[in-house]
């Protein structure tokens, strides 16, 4: 029983490694992280005048929290531009994570199909 578990885990691990080294996954990661850093930079530029305590790292934090739809609420936009940027980032973040979810689901389903076909 444990041999089968280790064998399946090894097979699944190889499939996941192939996924994270695929050009699509790498492209999504680069684009997603670029989007977060760019949004954080824009947020900082839009908000720094109205939010005197805002530092650049806080803007990057806000961008990550907003893109992942976590939204801690510790940093909130004060300007209309910041709020619009937040809305766009929430939508793009949701789409980005949906694509990641689809890639992982496809890998798991293909893994199951490959195992069935090998029997």
Q: Ends: how far apart?
A: 17 Å
Shape: elongated
Give the strand content: under 5%
Number of helices: 4
The count of DSSP E runs of length 2 or more, i.e. the number of strands, is 0
Helix proportion range = over 70%
State the order of secondary-structure elements, H for helix, E for strand.
Answer: HHHH
The computed structural class is mainly alpha
Written description of the protein model:
The protein is mainly α. α1 (2-20) packs across α4 and α2 (23-47) runs antiparallel to α4 (80-118). The chain is built from four helices and no strands. It has a domain at 40-108: Orthogonal Bundle (Helix Hairpins), CATH 1.10.287.
Briefly characterize the structure.
By secondary structure, this protein is an all-alpha fold. The protein has helices at residues 2-20, 23-47, 56-67, 80-118.
Topology:
Layout: H1 2-20, H2 23-47, H3 56-67, H4 80-118
Helix pairs in contact: 1-4, 2-3, 2-4
Keywords:
119 residues; mainly alpha; Helix Hairpins; 4 helices; 0% strand
